[in-house]
Amino acid sequence: MKKKSKYILAAIICIVAILLVLQFVLNKPVLEEPLSYVQDWQQTLYEDINVDYDGDGENEQGWNQVVFPLSILSCRENRTPEAIFGGVTYIDGVFHYDSAQAKWVGWSPTLSEIYVTLHEIVPYANYWVHVTQDCTLTLGKC
Length: 142
Fold this sequence. Notes:
Structural class: alpha+beta
Distance between the termini: 46 Å
Largest sheet: 4 strands, antiparallel
Order of helices and strands: HEEEEHHEEEE
Number of strands: 8
Strand order of the largest sheet: 4-7-5-6
Strand content: 25-35%
């Protein structure tokens, strides 16, 4: 019985190793979250959410926290803020704390390109999105 369980464990380790090699070679995840997004991904953004994002004791309106799942971003070649947020009229700013650079980076449809510091939207990162009116952010299914 012990021998059989050793073979099963060895088989599982081999399968995991093969999947990791495939992920590295193909440069895309082989195992990811379940493909439960058979419809468009949506998140409603509210103008009246109050957040004291700068720590000054006063709440600022219109800030929404958005986190994108891997399954909705993995099939998109263009992950720029313009591609993800540009079609929503009432979004006027997107910010993200980049811990690798230890600074805030941002994008706004009204900023000149030389002032834009956020260049790619990545899965599972927290983004603060400011809206001037309630709206819905929709990303079509892959």
